[in-house]
Write a structure and sequence with these properties.
alpha/beta; six-stranded parallel beta sheet; Rossmann fold; 13% strand
């Protein structure tokens, strides 16, 4: 057995830098739903001063917004931010936004193309006030092309990108991935593009418009499945829990659950057959090479499944790990967070909310030496920092009251 690697020492108050990697940047967050907020969350978590802009509530909407804000999804998306309410349909609200943008480094939005232009807060309008601005946009289908003005959501992008066609059991019809993959990845790709544009700005002195879309995120996620078509002209089919090209690599039933196994090389296949006590399979001429195993994978997988049902997932896991073979149990979400390796990585972090108490959320998925990925502040209430931000822009208390009366904030 391999000696376990000890977790790196956690940053202490003495060793923790007084700044975070993105603390010198100010970000204006105009995002909605999931794709845009997940992008901004990355920037906020690594220290950017994020000001989230939302419209002021109307009528009974305020109560509904509080209920939604208190939910786990909203709390996980919008931590480490400040919040202001602005009515961007009013001239006064737009002017406040522009004054914020003059001193900002980044603006992020994921409205349908054309909406920001109608509101007068599009890239060109903001760039006139701040030529160094990095302006990030996510849309369903991109900022140009025949589908630009169409609405979209993650599942539509999953379907139109081809993701649903390669997900699920052969013959069962299209199946969506169980998480909002195009939303989350579009957010990740936009955050990456924004950081690239900020690096370039240090050299060129110019701001940039960074764009991505749900459909582009979906196509990028296809990766080798996409190039099986673009290069090989093969339309990938559904493969269920088996790997599309390598075998044996997939999910197999055990006596009490399921286990994922990868034993694709000739060496690992021989080891695998020995571990599961099925040397006859290793000697079978149908499985004598990688190409033959791929050609006869259904018969091979049936034999593997029958054998693995003889022991529990835990028993097989210990045997296969000891033999150095890639494998792992199939967890539900509760079991995943209880795994000692996941606990050791400390991706689950808590934050104190003034009304909701201690909340357990999911931190950033990468570590940067010398910095702690703690969640510093909980998601703010609607407009929680409106007065504070306006005062920092030079508005007097009297002017703020007039803006409230005019429903500009």
């Amino acid at each position: 057995m391999h000696k376990p690697v000890e977790a790196p020492a956690q940053a202490t108050p003495e060793s923790q830098p007084s700044r975070l990697p993105l603390s010198r940047f100010k970000v204006i967050d105009l995002t909605l739903a999931r794709a845009g907020p997940s992008c901004v969350r990355t920037l906020a978590d690594w220290g950017a001063d994020v000001i989230r802009v939302e419209p002021p509530p109307e009528g009974d909407e305020a109560g509904e917004l509080v209920g939604r804000r208190d939910g786990s999804d909203f709390q996980n998306l919008h931590r480490n931010k400040r919040a202001i309410t602005l009515n961007l349909k009013s001239e006064q609200g737009r002017e406040i936004l522009m004054r914020l943008a003059e001193d900002a480094d980044v603006v992020v939005e994921n409205m349908r193309p054309g909406v920001t232009k109608r509101l007068g807060v599009d890239y060109e309008a903001v760039r006139k006030r701040n030529p160094r601005i990095v302006y990030g946009s996510i849309s369903g289908f991109g900022q140009y092309g025949p589908y630009t003005s169409r609405p979209s959501i993650d599942q539509i992008a999953q379907g139109m990108s081809g993701i649903m066609s390669v997900t699920g059991i052969p013959g069962q019809g299209p199946v969506r991935v169980g998480v909002a993959v195009t939303d989350i990845m579009a957010g990740a790709f936009l955050a990456q593009g924004i950081l690239i544009a900020l690096l370039d700005r240090d050299v060129s002195g110019q701001g940039r418009w960074v764009q991505t879309s749900l459909i582009e995120a979906g196509l990028t996620l296809l990766d080798f499945q996409a190039t099986r078509w673009t290069m090989d002209k093969k339309i990938p089919p559904q493969e269920g829990n088996n790997h599309p090209t390598n075998t044996p690599m997939g999910c197999f039933p055990t006596a009490d659950g399921h286990i994922n196994i990868a034993a694709t090389s000739n060496k690992n296949f021989q080891i695998f057959c020995k571990v599961i006590g099925h040397e006859t399979m290793a000697a079978d001429p149908r499985f004598a090479s990688i190409a033959l195993r791929r050609q006869n994978k259904e018969a091979m997988n049936d034999m593997i499944a029958a054998t693995l049902r003889e022991k529990t997932t835990g028993e097989w896991f210990e045997l296969l790990v000891a033999a150095g073979l890639p494998c792992g149990p199939v967890y539900n979400i509760k079991q995943a967070f209880a795994d000692p390796q996941i606990e050791a990585l400390r991706i689950k972090r808590s934050v104190q909310h003034p009304r909701l108490g201690e909340l357990d959320l999911v931190a950033q998925p990468c570590e940067i030496s010398g910095f702690d990925r703690e969640i510093r502040t909980a998601t703010p209430d609607l407009g929680e920092h409106t007065n504070e931000i306006l005062v920092s822009l030079g508005y007097s208390e009297e002017e703020i009251e007039k803006l409230k009366a005019a429903r500009a904030i």
